[in-house]
Amino acid sequence: MTIWIGLTGGIGSGKSQAAAEFLYLGVPLIDADAISRQLTAPNGAALPAIREVFGDTVFDENACLKREVLRNLVFSSGGAKNKLEALMYPLISAEISRQQALYSGRPYGVVEIPLLTEKPAFRALVDRVLLIDCELEIRLERVMQRSGLKEEEVLRIMDAQASDKERWAVADDILRNSASAAELKEKIGRLHRFYQSFAKGEIVGSA
């Protein structure tokens, strides 16, 4: 049976970089955000439901989703956020399960799910939770550098996510990612060996 590791962390923590390291090591990787983008791409499976719930104003003349319009609507209204999540998350979960079945013979795999803490239903899809964590100041700097967003905009996004305390409470393993890419690579290598042994039943507990 394949052991599935739920990889999560706040914005700017470096979870995507960590996921890339696992992929480099040949570990199956499923990306929940990529699935979400696929579902909402032109002709995506989620578009009819989004149009039904939010109307034509979130679509352009080519029937493509206006992502920024929808994003602003969701950030400004808790009701809109709940409606979008109610239609998207079952679709995302179903696609994750479908992809997991493709790797049934592998020792372990990784599912990158940014909202793993916020949405407990996702935790039913994984066997362990790996949290990528680092200081708030570092996360802020990373996000502002890569996105061009102002500090208050990044903080608004962070405020909408789980707190550090909430993430720590659900994590089986915590990787601190406050230093260099080389150090992250070494830490992922150690975790890779741990998860391989864990999948074989040779060890129990935390990494």
Automatic annotation (TrEMBL):
Q: Name one GO molecular function term.
A: ATP binding
List keywords of the entry alphabetically. Answer: ATP-binding, Coenzyme A biosynthesis, Cytoplasm, Kinase, Nucleotide-binding, Transferase
Name the Gene3D superfamilies for this protein: P-loop containing nucleotide triphosphate hydrolases (3.40.50.300)
Please give the catalytic activity noted in the UniProt record: 3'-dephospho-CoA + ATP = ADP + CoA + H(+)
Query: Which pathway does the protein contribute to?
Result: Cofactor biosynthesis; coenzyme A biosynthesis; CoA from (R)-pantothenate: step 5/5
The family annotation for this protein states: Belongs to the CoaE family.
Residues where ATP binds: G12, S13, G14, K15, S16, Q17
Q: What class of enzyme is it?
A: transferase
Where does the UniProt annotation locate this protein? Cytoplasm
Q: What EC number is given for this enzyme?
A: 2.7.1.24
- Any idea what job this protein has? Catalyzes the phosphorylation of the 3'-hydroxyl group of dephosphocoenzyme A to form coenzyme A.
Tell me what organism the protein belongs to.
Answer: Neisseria wadsworthii 9715
Q: Which GO terms describe its cellular component?
A: cytoplasm
Name of the molecule in the record: Dephospho-CoA kinase
Gene Ontology biological process terms, A to Z: coenzyme A biosynthetic process
NCBIfam families in alphabetical order: dephospho-CoA kinase
Instruction: Look up keyword Nucleotide-binding and say if it applies.
Output: yes
Q: Which InterPro entries match?
A: Depp_CoAkinase, P-loop_NTPase
